[in-house]
Input
Amino acid sequence: MTPVRHVVVAVPARDEELVLDRCLAAIGRAVRDLADHRPGLGVDVVVALDRCRDASASVVAAHPALAVALDAGAAGAARHLAVTVGRSMPGAVRARSGATWLASTDADSEVPAHWLSEQVRLADAGHDLVVGTVEPHPELAPGLAAAWRARHVLEEGHPHVHGANLGVRADAYDEAGGFPPWPTHEDVELVRRVRAAGRASVATDRLRVVTSARLVGRSPGGFAAYLGDLLVTPSAEVGVEPA
Output
């Protein structure tokens, strides 16, 4: 297995100026932790601003990250654009696809400091796909925290898929056709395709990401809608859990 030589962090965003600073600050801490563990390994952070009408671009400009704009209204298209632009940067071009790692999170999420270091460690151990867990922010509405914990397995080998906490080797991403340009469930489809291709994968709780607990989201059928349904029907099946 080729060791990772470059990392691209892809972040889709739509009018996230109120939370994007925390997201990028957390990614910055993860980049610095990776530099401590793997000196010389390059990282490019790309934020895809999808139909943004707020000051999200100004927030990105305050961080070591690149902003790109699109008008798709779909998380899958935004994630894919961020990946594509990141892979066009010199570091990823030099590393080539087998040695480039693609990490995905969301603009309303905060990754732990060891997020990238752990993904790269797992990649260098032979994994082509890392599927992490998420946990809604402690600002949960009354009753929602218990309902969330009752329905989620936060342990090694968990069954969940979240675009807010994914990592995949670039050649496996290409083989799977990348993130489909869907408004939701693009993460689930990518993971399905990578696993169907027989690529080595791991589902882990060792790099849990904290994400927004808002009940009004940016895309219909997204994570906020899932939380809203969970609050209404905490013991019922409410379908595929979106990122």
User: Anything to note?
Assistant: The chain has a mean pLDDT of 89.
